[in-house]
């Protein structure tokens, strides 16, 4: 506790209670009522011949074109205004990805249809697109749904529930809670569920499961990254420890915060870890200019050969000059990329941007691909308006 | 519980603290009230998404500070700070603490909003550099730099507060 804090506490006592909740709620009601009238007005304009063509990709994303295509992913993703509910009594075919648009959780199937999912969030889609795992409400349960039929399983678990699929989509591993939860291994070919007796003191987080059922364990996000461990999916016994040094990372490199956990590629043996150099710009003296980027790379470690085989640098942020600044402080949503998943053509990233019109709001989201053959970063999917919570297969 | 009810319940439990932060950021009641209202409108607009995100407090904090900085940007050509605000001369018979409090408020008003924000986040809300960076949407390096410059500016505009500032600069 500093004297400055004490003095700020004192100064804050002069504040009144500005209870403006009613005003805020009234403003929102009014805006929603106006929003309901907008489609009617637009329809009238169309009838009057004043509006001929709409530009679904206007605004912030205007003019941008995808630079490549990735099989299965749409080049342009236009969230439907009122997609039908995902039917519970029949299958809809395999899914490609899920996302949140407005207040709706939306599922996009491989044949391009969109469905509204009755869920708070989508936790995962199996690599073959057949299985969907969702959190029904904040109190649970987690529901595993077969999208080709009506089969389902439920898991109790808190919001730290995590799940990973084997690349061949035959296994699913779930941790119902990272602190005190149970780890289940589900055989998706039979629906059989077994408990993995991991040592709770050392379990950390299950970040992947291999086709053989072997588990890849990593540190929880709350503690410093300490490498990977491989555990038997039946006995839970750790069969191999891979320290940070053994991963082949530089001594100053560690897992980058907020960039996702290590993920297993569809080749079943490369684990990609988002890492950054802790001796980089974030640890420079206080006099360092604002806007420095962290050098985040996706490091691919081959579990079979025990070697670091791939490094893909992530362009982390638009140039500082384009980011809102005030008194030297940057603000607005971060412009960055996070690992989305793996595609036969390369590594998929979600590129989150800030809106050019309103720095507080998120701008358009794009899906990008780091091509396996060239390492080039290419835009594969554009979105027509801000969406969030994108979940891809795997 | 519907969305509006849960929003009201959430705000009700936090309105006192939000008000105090807004007052420290703006230095006057009308601006603080405006800041709280605009923030709540932004939060209410996305309330379901905010809950779904799992950390509504962090969202509200970000909204409040971003609104503070952005609203200042739109107003900055209209605002003229008094060179020597009248309150400062009215405290001859007040206690030393009361005078210091007024001096601190005046000094905060002379900081750029981003600098004021880091001071409030670091020393009033007691957040770490990483959490402050998260709230402002900037890097930890930027927070360090801003804190350094803000304390330096406070030392210049309010030499009476040198003792407080030196104490704040001692690493925890």
Automatic annotation (TrEMBL), chain A:
Kindly state which keywords UniProt assigns to this record, in alphabetical order: Membrane, Transmembrane, Transmembrane helix
Segments passing through the bilayer = 33-53
Segment Disordered: which positions? 59-90
Designated name of the protein: WD40 repeat domain-containing protein
Automatic annotation (TrEMBL), chain B:
A Pfam match: Sigma70_r2
Domain RNA polymerase sigma factor 70 region 4 type: from-to ranges: 104-154
Q: Does the keyword DNA-binding apply?
A: yes
Keyword annotations of the record: DNA-binding, DNA-directed RNA polymerase, Sigma factor, Transcription, Transcription regulation
- InterPro entries from the entry? RNA_pol_sigma-70-like, RNA_pol_sigma-70_dom, RNA_pol_sigma-E_actinobac, RNA_pol_sigma70_r2, RNA_pol_sigma70_r4_t2, RNA_pol_sigma_r2, RNA_pol_sigma_r3/r4-like, WH-like_DNA-bd_sf
* All copies of domain RNA polymerase sigma-70 region, residue ranges: 15-76
- What processes in GO biological process is this protein linked to? DNA-templated transcription initiation
Q: Name one GO cellular component term.
A: DNA-directed RNA polymerase complex
GO molecular function terms attached to this record: DNA binding; sigma factor activity
Task: Tell whether Lipoprotein is among the UniProt keywords.
Answer: no
> What SUPFAM superfamilies would the database entry show?
Sigma2 domain of RNA polymerase sigma factors, Sigma3 and sigma4 domains of RNA polymerase sigma factors
NCBIfam families in the record = SigE-fam_strep, sigma70-ECF
Member of which family?
Belongs to the sigma-70 factor family. ECF subfamily.
Q: What is this protein called?
A: DNA-directed RNA polymerase sigma-70 factor
Organism, by scientific name, is Dactylosporangium siamense
């Amino acid at each position: 506790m500093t004297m400055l804090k004490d003095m700020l506490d004192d100064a804050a006592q002069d504040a009144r209670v500005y209870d403006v909740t009613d005003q805020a709620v009234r403003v929102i009601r009014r805006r929603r009522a106006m929003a309901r009238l907008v489609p009617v007005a637009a329809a009238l304009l169309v009838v009057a011949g004043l509006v001929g063509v709409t530009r679904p990709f206007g605004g912030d994303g205007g003019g941008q074109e995808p630079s490549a295509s990735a099989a299965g992913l749409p080049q342009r993703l236009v969230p439907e205004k009122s997609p039908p509910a995902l039917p519970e009594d029949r299958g809809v075919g395999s899914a490609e990805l899920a996302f949140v648009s407005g207040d709706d959780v939306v599922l996009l199937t491989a044949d391009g249809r969109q469905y509204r999912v009755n869920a708070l969030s989508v936790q995962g889609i199996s690599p073959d697109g057949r299985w969907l795992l969702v959190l029904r409400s904040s109190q649970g349960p987690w529901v595993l749904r077969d999208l080709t039929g009506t089969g389902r399983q439920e898991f109790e678990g808190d919001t730290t529930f995590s799940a990973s699929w084997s690349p061949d989509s035959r296994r699913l591993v779930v941790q119902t809670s990272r602190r005190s939860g149970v780890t289940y291994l589900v055989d998706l070919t039979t629906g059989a569920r077994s408990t993995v007796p991991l040592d709770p003191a050392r379990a950390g987080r299950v970040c992947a499961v291999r086709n053989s059922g072997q588990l890849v364990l990593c540190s929880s996000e709350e503690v410093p990254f300490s490498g990977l461990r491989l555990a038997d999916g039946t006995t839970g016994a750790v069969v191999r420890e891979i320290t940070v040094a053994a991963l082949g990372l530089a001594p100053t490199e560690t897992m980058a915060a907020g960039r996702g956990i290590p993920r297993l590629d569809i080749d079943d043996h490369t684990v990609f870890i988002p890492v950054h150099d802790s001796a980089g710009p974030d640890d420079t003296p206080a006099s360092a200019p604002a806007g420095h980027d962290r050098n985040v790379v996706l490091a691919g470690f081959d579990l079979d050969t025990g070697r670091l085989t791939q490094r893909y640098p992530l362009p982390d942020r638009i140039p500082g000059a384009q980011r809102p600044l005030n008194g030297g402080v940057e603000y607005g949503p971060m412009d960055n990329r996070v690992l989305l998943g793996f595609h036969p053509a390369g590594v998929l990233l979600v590129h989150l941007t800030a809106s050019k019109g309103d720095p507080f709001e998120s701008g358009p989201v794009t899906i990008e691909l780091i091509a396996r053959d060239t390492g080039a970063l290419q835009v594969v999917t554009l979105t027509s308006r801000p969406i969030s919570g994108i979940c891809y297969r795997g | 519980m519907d969305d509006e009810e849960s929003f009201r319940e959430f705000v009700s439990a936090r309105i006192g603290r939000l008000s105090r932060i807004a007052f420290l950021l703006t230095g006057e009641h009308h601006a603080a009230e405006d800041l709280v209202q605009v923030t709540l409108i932004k939060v209410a607009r996305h309330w379901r998404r905010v809950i779904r995100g799992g950390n509504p407090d962090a969202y509200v904090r970000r909204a409040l500070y971003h609104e503070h900085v952005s609203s200042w940007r739109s107003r900055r050509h209209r605002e003229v700070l008094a060179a020597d605000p009248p309150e400062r001369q009215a405290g001859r018979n007040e206690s030393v603490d009361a005078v210091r409090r007024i001096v601190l408020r005046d000094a905060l008003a002379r900081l750029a909003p981003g600098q004021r924000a880091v001071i409030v986040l670091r020393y009033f809300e007691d957040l770490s550099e990483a959490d402050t960076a998260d709230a402002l949407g900037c890097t930890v390096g930027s927070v360090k730099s801003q804190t350094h410059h803000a304390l330096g500016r406070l030392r210049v505009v309010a030499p009476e507060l040198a003792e407080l500032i030196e104490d704040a600069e001692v690493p925890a």
